[in-house]
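Collaboration report, partner site 2.

Our partner group contributed sequences for two proteins of shared interest, and the home lab folded both. The records are reproduced in the order in which they were received, starting with the first partner submission.
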Amino acid sequence: MPSLKDLKIRIASVKATQKITKAMQMVAAAKLRRAQEAAEQARPYAERMAEVLAGAARVASASEAPRLMTGTGRDDTHLLVVCTAERGLCGSFNSSIARAARDHARKLTAAGKTVKFFTVGKKGFDALKREFGGQIVERVELRDVKRIGFGEASGVAQKIIAMFDAGEFDVATLFFSRFKSVIAQIPTARQLVPATGGEDAAARPATAASCEYEPDAGAILGDLIPRNISVQVFRALLENAAGEMGAKMSAMDSATRNAGEMINKLTLSYNRQRQAQITKELIEIISGAEAL
């Protein structure tokens, strides 16, 4: 049984931890609003971009469409772009994204496909390196970036396009966590290459207006698809930033409450043991006085 001194030291330690988790919760709450606004503001542009891409693809002929849209004609090699956070202490946020990518990779491997990984974020690399360490062909860490900008997403997109031009993969799929609420982040997979309109364009009602493209749909797609890849990666990074803050806020709130419960239990044990020790000392004093 621990002594009174040990219990006192442990209570002080848990109180110090509780202060840290409370401070982290408040910091995450302060950052969450800005990150959530950035993610929500990026959605309309990304959705409209996907809709324009789908519209141009419908009128472009097979000879006009660029390779980023038509693909290589095969689906033998798949590149999984896994976007996660740079830091932990945010519950199951990172592990849920890694689990979705891992399950997809296992299905592709079982079907006889070759799987490669491109990790964006330290936690994604850490979660996948044990099982798929030899298949991670590229990694990007954003630890030194104070605020995620379009430049970081554009750099990732350029690497993906360069790998496709070099013939390193046939299909690229982006994995990230879509922010829904503070307590709900949805792991999402979105195909980048060959480019498609995506779920956003499919969910919108078809417009009756006809569009004319100049100089032609193929030339527009040649410029639009690389930009769309950058936009989709940028949106994924913003969604992840908001989801990470929401998950961290929830995790630190739970940690703070658990620390409070532990402090109460330890304090109760400390008081009981202290009372028992006082009672024992009183009994010894009374017994000694009666013996005299």
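Second partner submission, folded after the first:
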Amino acid sequence: MAALLAASLALLVMLGGMPGPAAAATTTSTADTISSAVLGWLNRDRAARGLVPLRNWTPLKSMAADRAARMAEADTLSHAAAGGNVGTELSVRGLQWYGYGEIIGASTYPWGSQAAANIYSLWKASSSHRPIMFSARYNYVGVGFIYRSASNTTYASIVFAESKDHTGAVARNGTLSRTGTTVRFAWSGHDPRLQTHTAGLRSFDVQYRVDGGTWRTIRNDTTRTALTLASRSHGHWYGFRVQAADRRGNLSRWTSEKRVWVP
């Protein structure tokens, strides 16, 4: 068995282009499963230390996978082989950042959970990797694993970033009731907490429709969490849904429709 580790933590941007990703023999579904598992282990261990879970950032995950693929193509474990300076690549990809870090690893344990567990255990045991894994400043992360069949080696990169909040807010339906022809709808929401730079909940948009027709906005950027509509016409279904926004304008999905009948 061979297991190698490297780590970097940098906060200065350097300008320059990055090499493109190189192909490596791997299974996408397995790589995604491994990446999700490792992120789960990382956030479990962060929670045990009183830290907020890191949010998966899809562009950052793609970047980490590309960096792992470059190492696999070169069959070399190094930040240079991965693509060089992380800050440069973040900037080239148009990803906003205040700070970043990367940890990389390689293992000849069997591809899949065994290789992932081996690499993660070595990262966790390393005095140079733990400060990055359990930093109190990063809020987003991307995890990438690639297998090189020619050398039976799994390569991995985790890219960490301190960035502005770009996670959507969360909206939830509350109660929907009717008294006579008066309808009352309530809702709630929150902005998911990040380790740093949580924007905070700003407002809600509320829409309603009659009998499955066109949605109409009846509250825009409201900070209230309930409304009352009186004198609704008899013999119709009234549907409601809500969307939340944080202070950076990141929107939630619209909630599923909630309906009430006015006989």
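Feedback sent to the partner group on the second submission included the following. The two ends are 72 Å apart (CA to CA). Residues 1-6, 8-25 have pLDDT under 50 and may be disordered.
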